[in-house]
Each structure stands twice: as structure tokens, then as C-alpha cells.
């Protein structure tokens, strides 16, 4: 079947595009998709509302959900934290310098917001909100942009009635007309300008990541070239000594004795599930979740500068300390153990994984 | 780079020092001591190297450890949803090794095995189908070289010269040889409705990164690819299967491709409305700006690849590409655009693939304002930043294909600058 000459197959297919239903050469590969499989994956929603499921959610419910799942990156009022996207504000700024592009100021369709929240949020725990919860979160985002009142309930019935301010703010790519004809033809080769002056320098702005690091590596590499055998042995050895020594000093002897290196290593692998939100180790900072150095063996909710949920703070005030038992329970079902925790993670299913992660965290317990 | 860092207190060091002094004269005089690298039997010429299998899958030799992807931490909130840059300043030829080709993830690079892989085609088709990875390998396949450029490449340079290095200004690009199945073949297998105008494609990762592609393009040259540069796609490039959309912005090259839906309207997803649209000075924004216009960049000399040799022969080299066809010509200016000379193309330009150019020239320590200007087979000439700003204003992010200037100073150092 597949011995069809390629050009013939293409010619056939080309003809069929004109003729009607495509019934070009088939290979009989694959199998029919079952309706429940299509339902499980086909979630996209277009601006005409095709794909929008039946459901509803209120601004009020959305505010609570947003606080739990979204505010950690997007701010309590959808104003954005750090470099995370701002979802509200900016209306009327699109023709200003540095416009603020949000759902309210820039996005053309509410369906896009619904679709994106439904399929890709919360970050690190996507596709966990129910349909009604998605309606509620979107309702709250609309409210944050002053597009609906605080008693509004968004549903599949009224979503298409809401027009976003910038719905008519887009044109289809017009480069063919506005640019291509202007920038075509034989270009100038000589005497193209009278004078040339430098008007801006990157060194003045100085925002480039430290490129000198790369040069230092190059220099190190050169100094350790095997042509100089003595240096080659000396330098890496020194480098290893400096990286290993602090680790040995940091770990308390009793903890070192108790920790199984294989389990810690496994924990490091499992921790990748946590790493979307948590950092641990040297230089760890608070991200979506708190940094996790010195968490094991310490009171809960104690990482400086992190905004914990009310519920976790309450548990901390109640004397919660992270030890083997409490961490194991928390990591198995975070939201059962601390109702209302911001940690939007369903939990580790396997006891071995929990033990490994705890061992890994212990290695940073200090 | 000076050899003075050689600190082995031996006779070799003494000789090496003499060699440095000799090299400083540039022309080997009669008094020059023989280069000990030649006159002495070196360890590598006496002993033995590593046996086979020392590294079953090799990495570059340790002297090349600086040739790596780098990111710009202040650009994004978190490396999970971020981008890094290909070290184009240190590469030559046109093929980008997968291991240093820029990455862009919206929810991190996921691990998806071939066994767990499923590809669904649904929507306006006779029979919605599900393919396994093994199924895909049974369709007739093709092999093509294409560049993949993020629409945001050079985006940080709209407002002015910002990042000091070709890697950072132009490194959101790679160029690989892809093996895969024409998307058309799969659409035909499912019996697509020929009146349908769009396909919607999405990935298996949490971001899904869905994009709508007009049917005309889908039937033209889009590939469902599973190999790059002869081997399986790397995890960060969408293992086991990604979409290849030649000449169009990288965001549409959906990684971990899991679903293709034939539709009569675009989805207008987040990635094609709130992002990857271009706001003009009047606040109106262009959408569906898919194609990447002709562009070029001098990769060496450049800020990360300064001139380290003395006066005399100098190779100026760089890359050019166009999403609208083959590169036909590249001109180079050493004086900020007053005069231009035509560079030599390493081989004739290929459609939607990187083209390497060279200018074999002489440098005697004079300052240069180096620029490259690409032309493609449509006759399009790469514009200056001023020309772009005149049409688009200063609020754009994506599709900055302006002519770049490197200020090469008399000591050989280079800096990213803007010129009048």
C-alpha cells in the first residue's frame, strides 16, 4: 500500500482537497479514539463558547479559591507577585510606554481565561479545579478588573455575554502590506549614511548575566590543560575539597549517622515533584512555596519572609513541629492534614517516597 | 589568552615561558626556542588515552564546558516557566547540538516515555484516531533541516541595547535535522474534513501550550517529529514527539504533542491572544504573526567571542535565516551601516534553515561597528531597529529582526551598542 510513489500520493491528496472528503491512501494505523478518551482530553474552549461545560461559580467563592490557589503568584487582588503575571489593572495603558497587559486590559475573550485556568492552572497542580471552581476563579478575575459586581455568578449561560474591553484591539498580521514592500529590493552598499554615532551601550545598562563566569571557567580549563600535569591534578582536587568540606561540616554527626545516603539520593529524585514550588540547599529562596532548609525538626510556619496560609499559621501556633510523623502525614495528604494550606499538591502516594523526601529534607535540617 | 597561567615549577615551565616571549614577537625569529609542545614528547603521545566505552554516550570534552545554555534570571519569575539561550557565539556550521539548543518550557520539561505516549486526532475527521509511538514509526517519514526561533528572540533589545552577548540577544534559536511524519499524512489517515480551516495542537504537559494552525500550513510542511539530529528528541525538546512548524514562531512547535483537533475556527488560546501578539504604538495589536522574518547575527567576533589574536587575518562569521524561504545574500558592514560588502555563504541558503556566512578579512586593530544584513529569496531586506520602530513603535516584544551592531574596539573586545 505504501509503495505508492510519493508524488502520486501528493497529487492525489491535492486533487482530493478540491474534490471533498479526504480519503487519500490510508495506512490502517492507529485505532479509533473512544468517546470517553476524547472527552478526557478535548477541553479547549473557543471564543464562540464551543467546549464550554455546564456550570457556575460566584465571585465570592472565587475570592476564596483565588486566595488558596492563585494568590501566591498572582497576589490577593490579582495584582501579581514579583515577576508573576498581573491579572488585573492596566486598562487604557496599551498605547502608553510599557503597557500593563492583563485579562482586563488586553485579553480579547473571557473564554480564553476560562480555558487557560481550566487546563493549565494552578501552576504545578493543573487540571485539579472542578468546573464550578473554574467559573468561580474566572468570576473573581473579572471582578478584580471591575468588569462584574461582587455578587456576580458566572456560568456557561452568561459567560459569552461578557465583553472584555480589548476585544476589538487586535488586527490580523499585516506585515505583508505594512512592511514587506517597504523593506525589499536592492539595498544600499556605499555612502548609505553621512555619519554613525553610538547612541546606546549595553555595558552602561549592565543587565547581562555574569558572562565573566564563563571566561573564568575557560581560564580554569586552560590552567588545568593536561599539558601541565601538575596543575591539572592540583586544581580539581582543590575544587573538590572546597565543595565537599562545608557539606561535611554542616551535617551534625548524629544526623549523618542516621541518614541513609541511598534514601537521601532517592529523596532528591522524588523532590523534583516539589521543586516546582520549593527550593532547598545552598542559596535556597522562597518561591511559590517556602524554602525548605532547616524545616525538619523545626516548628511549622517558621521560614522567614514566607506568607503562610491562616490555617498553617494556626497549626504552628498550636505547636506543630515538623518531625518524621507530622511530615509523613502532611506529605501524604497535605490538604487533609492542614485544611486550607496553600500547598496545592495532592500528596505523595507511596510511603517509600515520603520516607525518601523526609530523609532528603533532613539532610538540610542543620 | 596568555599562557602565563602555567605554573608548573619545572623545566617545562621555563621553556613554556620562553615560548610565550617568542610568540609575542608574532613572527618566529631565529632566536625563538622550539615550542616544547613540539620539541618534547608529550604525555598524550607517550601514554594511552581512554578506552572505548569510557563514556557510552559522550559529552563535549571538558575544555568546552563554557559552551552551554544560559538564562537571564531577571526575565522570568521561575525557571520552570522560562527560557534559556543557545551559545551561538561559540558554535560554527549550522546544526545546533540538542544538548545546548535553547529550551522554552511553560510548565517544565516533562518525562514522558514512548510506552506512555499517545497521540489523538479528533474534531472534524471521519474517524477520531489514537496512535501509539510505535504506530508513528510505521508511517512514511521525511527528514528536513529547519530552524526554530522563539518569537521573543531579541525581544529584550526593543527599547535599546541591553544584553551583552550574541547568546543573549539572539540565542533563542536552534537548527536541527528533524525526522518525522508530515502532519498531512496523519490528517489524511483520520479522514479530515477538507472544508475545515484550522487544526489545534496541544502538548501533554500541564501548560498544554495549545496553538491554532491554519489548515493550509498544516497540509504544507508541518512535521510530527520524533528524531532530531539523528537521535531521539531530548526530553527538553519534547521527547518523544514534537511538532515542527517550519519558518513559524517556536511557540507553535508544540512539544510532547498529544492532540491534534481539526476545527473550523481557531481556539484563540492564551498563547495566541495574551502572548505572541504584537502591540503597536497606537495600542492596537497584531495577532497571528506566525512567520519569522529574515534576520542575521554576527556570532564572532561578538561580546562573548572577542578578537583574541593579533592583527592580520580575521574571520567574521554569523548566521542568517528566514521563515519565508531561503537566504539569498548577507552583507556585512564594519562602519555601522555606511558601507557594506557581501559575505560568503558556506553553502547556498536552504528554506527555513540557518545559513552560515563568512567574511574573510584583515583587521589591524581599527575600531569596527559590525553589522550583518540578511536578504531572502522574496527580496526582503532585514530592517534596522529604527525602521522597525517607525512601523511598530517601542512596545513590541516579539518579532524583533533588526540589524544588530557590535562595537569592536581596538583591543578586540566587542560590545552590544545601538547606532544612529
TrEMBL record, chain A:
Keyword Metal-binding: yes
Annotated InterPro entries: Cyt_c-like_dom (IPR009056), Cyt_c-like_dom_sf (IPR036909), Cyt_c_1A/1B (IPR002327)
Keyword Metal-binding: yes
A GO MF label: heme binding
PROSITE patterns xrefs: CYTC
One Pfam family from the record: Cytochrom_C
Residues making up the signal peptide according to the UniProt record: 1-24
Domain spans labelled Cytochrome c: 57-145, 262-365
Key words of the record: Electron transport, Heme, Iron, Metal-binding, Signal, Transport
Protein name: Cytochrome c domain-containing protein
Species of origin: Seohaeicola zhoushanensis
Automatic annotation (TrEMBL), chain B:
Domain Oxidoreductase molybdopterin-binding: from-to ranges: 112-268
Keyword Signal: yes
Keyword terms, alphabetized: Metal-binding, Molybdenum, Oxidoreductase, Signal
Domain (Moybdenum cofactor oxidoreductase dimerisation): residue spans on this chain: 286-404
GO term, biological process aspect, one: sulfur compound metabolic process
Molecular function as annotated in GO: heme binding; molybdenum ion binding; molybdopterin cofactor binding; sulfite oxidase activity
Signal peptide residues on this chain, from the entry's feature table: 1-33
SUPFAM superfamilies: E set domains, Oxidoreductase molybdopterin-binding domain
Cofactor(s) for this UniProt protein: Mo-molybdopterin
NCBIfam families given in the database record: sulfite_DH_soxC
Name of the featured protein: Sulfite dehydrogenase
Taxonomic lineage of the native organism: Bacteria, Pseudomonadati, Pseudomonadota, Alphaproteobacteria, Rhodobacterales
